[in-house]
Design a protein that fits this description.
- The chain is low in regular secondary structure.
- It is built from 2 helices and 4 strands.
- The longest helix is centred in the N-terminal third of the chain and has 5 residues.
- The protein is flat.
- It starts with a strand and ends in a 16-residue tail after the last helix.
Amino acid sequence: MADCYCKYCGSKYSSVTSLVSQSCSRNPAGSGSRHELYEGSEKDQYTCKCCGSKYSSISSMTSQSCSKSPTKRHQPTL
């Protein structure tokens, strides 16, 4: 199986079970919230669905703020 990534922070896990069992500090739901699965495929470049900026990884994208996003962080397109 392919690696699984969190859509909020880009952390990589080997299974969905291990991904969703861990808390994510960038989840907009707040403290103690879990990682959520990025359901898109692995790509060479990721585009923010709110502003169109491009990044080489989900983790580098989600670490930056986005003025057009309701969560104030870039969000990867699928």
